[in-house]
Amino acid sequence: MLKVENVTKYYGDFLAVDNLSFTVKEGEIFGLLGVNGAGKTTTFRMIMGLLDASSGSVTWNDKKIDYDVTDKIGFLTEERSLLTKLTVKEQCLFYGTLKGMQDDVIIKRLETLLEKFNISEYKDKKIKELSKGNQQKIQFITAIINEPKLLILDEPFSGLDPINVELFKNEIIEMAQKGSMIIFSSHRMEHVELFCEKLVVLLKGKTVLEGKIADIKKQYRKKNIFIKANIELEKLKQVDGVLSVSNVGDEIEVKIANEEVAPKVFEVVAKASDISKFVIEEPSLNEIFIAKVGENYEK
Protein backbone atom coordinates (compact mmCIF):
# COMPACT_ATOMS: atom_id res chain seq x y z
CA MET A 1 0.00 0.00 0.00
CA LEU A 2 1.12 3.54 -0.78
CA LYS A 3 0.54 5.99 2.07
CA VAL A 4 0.80 9.76 1.78
CA GLU A 5 0.45 11.02 5.36
CA ASN A 6 0.10 14.69 6.32
CA VAL A 7 2.53 15.75 3.62
CA THR A 8 3.44 19.43 3.34
CA LYS A 9 5.91 20.95 0.90
CA TYR A 10 7.34 24.46 0.91
CA TYR A 11 9.51 26.07 -1.76
CA GLY A 12 11.01 28.83 0.36
CA ASP A 13 7.98 30.69 1.69
CA PHE A 14 5.64 29.27 -0.96
CA LEU A 15 3.31 26.51 0.24
CA ALA A 16 2.93 24.06 -2.66
CA VAL A 17 1.25 21.14 -0.86
CA ASP A 18 -0.65 21.58 2.40
CA ASN A 19 -1.12 18.62 4.77
CA LEU A 20 -2.11 16.10 2.08
CA SER A 21 -3.11 12.54 3.01
CA PHE A 22 -4.38 9.59 0.99
CA THR A 23 -3.75 5.88 0.46
CA VAL A 24 -3.65 3.71 -2.65
CA LYS A 25 -4.04 -0.05 -2.33
CA GLU A 26 -2.79 -2.76 -4.66
CA GLY A 27 -5.11 -3.07 -7.64
CA GLU A 28 -6.61 0.39 -7.08
CA ILE A 29 -6.81 3.26 -9.59
CA PHE A 30 -6.74 6.53 -7.67
CA GLY A 31 -7.46 10.00 -9.07
CA LEU A 32 -5.30 12.98 -8.06
CA LEU A 33 -6.92 16.04 -9.62
CA GLY A 34 -6.69 19.79 -9.61
CA VAL A 35 -6.35 22.90 -11.72
CA ASN A 36 -2.94 23.97 -13.01
CA GLY A 37 -0.64 24.86 -10.12
CA ALA A 38 -2.67 22.86 -7.59
CA GLY A 39 0.32 20.83 -6.37
CA LYS A 40 -0.11 17.60 -8.35
CA THR A 41 3.37 17.55 -9.94
CA THR A 42 5.03 18.33 -6.61
CA THR A 43 3.08 15.46 -5.05
CA PHE A 44 4.16 13.09 -7.82
CA ARG A 45 7.79 14.04 -7.30
CA MET A 46 7.55 13.45 -3.55
CA ILE A 47 5.95 10.06 -4.11
CA MET A 48 8.81 9.05 -6.41
CA GLY A 49 11.43 10.29 -3.97
CA LEU A 50 12.62 13.09 -6.27
CA LEU A 51 11.66 15.70 -3.67
CA ASP A 52 11.67 15.52 0.11
CA ALA A 53 8.55 16.67 1.93
CA SER A 54 8.92 19.59 4.34
CA SER A 55 6.87 17.51 6.79
CA GLY A 56 4.83 14.32 6.75
CA SER A 57 5.77 11.05 5.08
CA VAL A 58 5.35 8.99 1.91
CA THR A 59 5.73 5.23 2.35
CA TRP A 60 5.25 2.13 0.25
CA ASN A 61 4.48 -0.97 2.30
CA ASP A 62 5.57 1.03 5.37
CA LYS A 63 9.01 1.87 3.92
CA LYS A 64 10.32 5.12 2.50
CA ILE A 65 10.56 5.13 -1.29
CA ASP A 66 14.21 5.07 -2.38
CA TYR A 67 16.41 3.52 -5.08
CA ASP A 68 15.62 0.04 -3.78
CA VAL A 69 12.10 0.30 -5.23
CA THR A 70 12.36 2.81 -8.10
CA ASP A 71 12.72 -0.05 -10.61
CA LYS A 72 9.14 -0.98 -9.71
CA ILE A 73 7.76 2.50 -10.47
CA GLY A 74 6.50 3.86 -13.79
CA PHE A 75 5.77 7.52 -14.54
CA LEU A 76 4.16 9.09 -17.58
CA THR A 77 4.70 12.85 -17.48
CA GLU A 78 2.29 15.39 -18.92
CA GLU A 79 5.15 16.90 -20.94
CA ARG A 80 6.63 14.90 -23.80
CA SER A 81 9.90 13.43 -22.52
CA LEU A 82 11.09 11.30 -25.43
CA LEU A 83 14.51 11.46 -27.09
CA THR A 84 13.28 12.20 -30.58
CA LYS A 85 16.46 11.21 -32.47
CA LEU A 86 16.30 7.66 -31.12
CA THR A 87 14.25 4.89 -32.67
CA VAL A 88 11.35 3.38 -30.73
CA LYS A 89 13.47 0.31 -29.98
CA GLU A 90 16.45 2.40 -28.80
CA GLN A 91 14.19 4.55 -26.62
CA CYS A 92 12.66 1.54 -24.90
CA LEU A 93 16.03 -0.17 -24.44
CA PHE A 94 17.28 3.01 -22.77
CA TYR A 95 14.33 3.26 -20.36
CA GLY A 96 14.26 -0.48 -19.70
CA THR A 97 17.96 -0.51 -18.87
CA LEU A 98 17.43 2.33 -16.40
CA LYS A 99 14.86 0.07 -14.71
CA GLY A 100 17.38 -2.80 -14.43
CA MET A 101 15.88 -4.94 -17.22
CA GLN A 102 17.86 -7.21 -19.54
CA ASP A 103 17.84 -6.37 -23.26
CA ASP A 104 16.07 -9.56 -24.33
CA VAL A 105 13.32 -8.99 -21.74
CA ILE A 106 12.90 -5.39 -22.89
CA ILE A 107 12.57 -6.38 -26.55
CA LYS A 108 10.03 -9.11 -25.81
CA ARG A 109 7.94 -6.75 -23.68
CA LEU A 110 8.23 -4.00 -26.30
CA GLU A 111 7.03 -6.25 -29.10
CA THR A 112 4.02 -7.31 -27.02
CA LEU A 113 3.06 -3.70 -26.29
CA LEU A 114 3.62 -2.46 -29.85
CA GLU A 115 1.26 -5.17 -31.05
CA LYS A 116 -1.34 -4.24 -28.42
CA PHE A 117 -1.29 -0.64 -29.57
CA ASN A 118 -1.27 -1.52 -33.28
CA ILE A 119 2.10 0.09 -34.04
CA SER A 120 4.46 -2.89 -34.53
CA GLU A 121 5.70 -1.37 -37.80
CA TYR A 122 7.20 1.60 -35.90
CA LYS A 123 9.72 -0.41 -33.90
CA ASP A 124 12.70 0.90 -35.90
CA LYS A 125 11.26 4.34 -36.68
CA LYS A 126 12.73 7.44 -35.06
CA ILE A 127 10.48 9.12 -32.50
CA LYS A 128 10.50 12.40 -34.45
CA GLU A 129 8.97 10.60 -37.45
CA LEU A 130 5.86 9.58 -35.50
CA SER A 131 2.60 11.48 -35.12
CA LYS A 132 1.82 13.09 -31.75
CA GLY A 133 -0.67 10.33 -30.97
CA ASN A 134 1.87 7.58 -31.70
CA GLN A 135 4.53 9.44 -29.70
CA GLN A 136 2.10 9.37 -26.78
CA LYS A 137 1.75 5.62 -27.22
CA ILE A 138 5.54 5.22 -27.07
CA GLN A 139 5.71 7.44 -24.00
CA PHE A 140 3.11 5.23 -22.34
CA ILE A 141 5.01 2.09 -23.35
CA THR A 142 8.22 3.44 -21.80
CA ALA A 143 6.30 4.09 -18.57
CA ILE A 144 5.02 0.52 -18.34
CA ILE A 145 7.90 -1.38 -20.01
CA ASN A 146 9.01 -2.62 -16.56
CA GLU A 147 5.47 -3.74 -15.55
CA PRO A 148 5.51 -1.33 -12.61
CA LYS A 149 3.86 -2.06 -9.28
CA LEU A 150 3.26 1.68 -8.84
CA LEU A 151 2.27 3.64 -11.94
CA ILE A 152 1.74 7.41 -12.06
CA LEU A 153 -0.11 8.72 -15.10
CA ASP A 154 -0.26 12.48 -15.69
CA GLU A 155 -2.66 13.29 -18.57
CA PRO A 156 -2.09 9.90 -20.27
CA PHE A 157 -4.73 10.44 -22.97
CA SER A 158 -3.24 13.65 -24.36
CA GLY A 159 -3.41 13.68 -28.16
CA LEU A 160 -5.34 10.40 -28.42
CA ASP A 161 -8.51 9.70 -30.37
CA PRO A 162 -11.37 7.74 -28.71
CA ILE A 163 -10.22 4.38 -30.12
CA ASN A 164 -6.74 4.79 -28.65
CA VAL A 165 -8.16 6.08 -25.36
CA GLU A 166 -9.98 2.76 -25.17
CA LEU A 167 -6.71 0.84 -25.79
CA PHE A 168 -4.97 2.78 -23.01
CA LYS A 169 -7.93 2.30 -20.69
CA ASN A 170 -7.94 -1.46 -21.21
CA GLU A 171 -4.22 -1.70 -20.50
CA ILE A 172 -4.54 0.40 -17.33
CA ILE A 173 -7.42 -1.73 -16.07
CA GLU A 174 -5.49 -4.92 -16.87
CA MET A 175 -2.50 -3.67 -14.88
CA ALA A 176 -4.73 -2.85 -11.91
CA GLN A 177 -6.28 -6.32 -12.10
CA LYS A 178 -2.76 -7.75 -11.86
CA GLY A 179 -2.19 -5.77 -8.65
CA SER A 180 -0.53 -2.52 -9.75
CA MET A 181 -1.30 0.65 -7.80
CA ILE A 182 -2.16 3.42 -10.25
CA ILE A 183 -2.39 7.16 -9.63
CA PHE A 184 -4.20 8.94 -12.43
CA SER A 185 -4.37 12.65 -13.14
CA SER A 186 -6.38 14.37 -15.86
CA HIS A 187 -8.26 17.59 -16.53
CA ARG A 188 -10.88 15.52 -18.34
CA MET A 189 -13.33 14.43 -15.68
CA GLU A 190 -15.03 11.93 -17.98
CA HIS A 191 -11.70 10.10 -18.19
CA VAL A 192 -11.44 9.99 -14.41
CA GLU A 193 -14.93 8.51 -14.22
CA LEU A 194 -13.90 5.73 -16.61
CA PHE A 195 -12.09 3.79 -13.93
CA CYS A 196 -11.14 5.73 -10.78
CA GLU A 197 -12.97 4.63 -7.64
CA LYS A 198 -11.44 7.18 -5.24
CA LEU A 199 -9.98 10.62 -5.70
CA VAL A 200 -8.52 13.72 -4.12
CA VAL A 201 -9.01 17.17 -5.61
CA LEU A 202 -6.34 19.77 -4.81
CA LEU A 203 -6.58 23.54 -4.97
CA LYS A 204 -3.55 25.64 -4.13
CA GLY A 205 -2.00 22.58 -2.50
CA LYS A 206 -4.95 21.89 -0.21
CA THR A 207 -7.54 19.11 -0.40
CA VAL A 208 -10.99 20.49 -1.27
CA LEU A 209 -12.69 17.20 -2.19
CA GLU A 210 -11.88 13.57 -1.40
CA GLY A 211 -13.42 10.13 -1.15
CA LYS A 212 -15.12 7.54 -3.31
CA ILE A 213 -16.65 9.01 -6.46
CA ALA A 214 -19.97 7.24 -5.80
CA ASP A 215 -20.16 8.74 -2.30
CA ILE A 216 -19.19 12.21 -3.53
CA LYS A 217 -22.02 12.13 -6.06
CA LYS A 218 -24.54 11.03 -3.43
CA GLN A 219 -23.44 13.78 -1.03
CA TYR A 220 -23.71 16.44 -3.71
CA ARG A 221 -27.38 17.20 -3.37
CA LYS A 222 -27.94 18.92 -6.71
CA LYS A 223 -29.39 16.60 -9.35
CA ASN A 224 -30.22 16.77 -13.05
CA ILE A 225 -33.49 15.79 -14.69
CA PHE A 226 -33.67 14.99 -18.40
CA ILE A 227 -37.08 15.31 -19.99
CA LYS A 228 -38.59 14.63 -23.40
CA ALA A 229 -41.97 16.31 -23.53
CA ASN A 230 -43.78 19.16 -25.22
CA ILE A 231 -43.76 21.67 -22.39
CA GLU A 232 -42.96 25.36 -21.96
CA LEU A 233 -39.57 25.91 -20.28
CA GLU A 234 -40.96 28.87 -18.36
CA LYS A 235 -43.36 26.62 -16.43
CA LEU A 236 -40.43 24.48 -15.27
CA LYS A 237 -38.40 27.54 -14.25
CA GLN A 238 -41.21 28.63 -11.91
CA VAL A 239 -40.95 25.46 -9.79
CA ASP A 240 -39.42 26.17 -6.38
CA GLY A 241 -36.00 24.49 -6.18
CA VAL A 242 -35.30 24.50 -9.92
CA LEU A 243 -31.90 26.08 -10.52
CA SER A 244 -31.87 26.19 -14.31
CA VAL A 245 -33.69 24.91 -17.38
CA SER A 246 -32.15 24.50 -20.82
CA ASN A 247 -32.49 22.64 -24.10
CA VAL A 248 -29.84 19.95 -24.65
CA GLY A 249 -30.32 18.44 -28.09
CA ASP A 250 -33.86 17.15 -28.26
CA GLU A 251 -34.18 17.02 -24.46
CA ILE A 252 -34.82 19.46 -21.66
CA GLU A 253 -32.25 19.53 -18.85
CA VAL A 254 -33.52 20.71 -15.47
CA LYS A 255 -31.01 21.26 -12.68
CA ILE A 256 -32.57 20.97 -9.23
CA ALA A 257 -31.33 21.86 -5.75
CA ASN A 258 -32.00 18.38 -4.35
CA GLU A 259 -33.93 15.19 -5.05
CA GLU A 260 -37.00 16.44 -3.14
CA VAL A 261 -37.66 18.92 -5.96
CA ALA A 262 -38.12 16.13 -8.52
CA PRO A 263 -41.79 15.31 -7.66
CA LYS A 264 -42.68 19.00 -8.05
CA VAL A 265 -41.09 19.05 -11.49
CA PHE A 266 -42.92 15.85 -12.43
CA GLU A 267 -46.26 17.38 -11.44
CA VAL A 268 -45.69 20.05 -14.08
CA VAL A 269 -44.37 17.65 -16.69
CA ALA A 270 -47.26 15.20 -16.13
CA LYS A 271 -49.64 17.73 -17.66
CA ALA A 272 -47.88 17.39 -21.00
CA SER A 273 -49.49 14.97 -23.48
CA ASP A 274 -46.37 13.44 -25.03
CA ILE A 275 -43.93 12.52 -22.27
CA SER A 276 -41.33 10.01 -23.49
CA LYS A 277 -38.61 10.58 -20.90
CA PHE A 278 -38.26 11.75 -17.30
CA VAL A 279 -34.94 10.64 -15.80
CA ILE A 280 -33.19 11.85 -12.65
CA GLU A 281 -29.42 11.58 -12.86
CA GLU A 282 -26.50 12.17 -10.55
CA PRO A 283 -24.43 15.23 -11.56
CA SER A 284 -21.28 14.54 -13.55
CA LEU A 285 -17.93 14.64 -11.81
CA ASN A 286 -17.12 17.60 -14.05
CA GLU A 287 -20.05 19.57 -12.57
CA ILE A 288 -19.01 18.75 -9.02
CA PHE A 289 -15.38 19.62 -9.73
CA ILE A 290 -16.29 23.02 -11.17
CA ALA A 291 -18.68 23.78 -8.31
CA LYS A 292 -16.32 22.66 -5.54
CA VAL A 293 -13.15 24.19 -6.93
CA GLY A 294 -15.01 27.35 -7.94
CA GLU A 295 -16.41 28.00 -4.47
CA ASN A 296 -12.93 27.64 -2.94
CA TYR A 297 -10.94 29.40 -5.67
CA GLU A 298 -11.00 32.89 -4.20
CA LYS A 299 -10.60 31.82 -0.58
Task: Give structural notes.
The protein has 299 residues and is of the alpha/beta class. It folds into 2 domains: 2-217, Rossmann fold; 221-281, Alpha-Beta Plaits (2-Layer Sandwich). Helices cover 34% and strands 29% of the residues. A hairpin with a 2-residue loop joins strand 1 (2-11) and strand 2. Helix 2 (88-98) packs across helix 3 (103-116) and helix 2 (88-98) packs parallel to helix 4 (132-144). It is globular, with a radius of gyration of 23 Å. The chain starts with a strand and ends with a helix.
Structural class: alpha/beta
Low-confidence stretches: none
CATH architecture type of the largest domain = 3-Layer(aba) Sandwich
Specify the number of helices: 10
Q: Which homologous superfamily in CATH is the superfamily of the largest domain? A: P-loop containing nucleotide triphosphate hydrolases
Specify Rg, calculated over alpha carbons. Answer: 23 Å
Indicate the mean pLDDT: 91
Shape: globular
Instruction: For the largest sheet, list the strands in their spatial order.
Output: 6-7-8-3-9-10
CATH C-level label of the largest domain? Alpha Beta
Tell me about the largest β-sheet. 6 strands, mixed
How many domains make up the 3D coordinates? 2
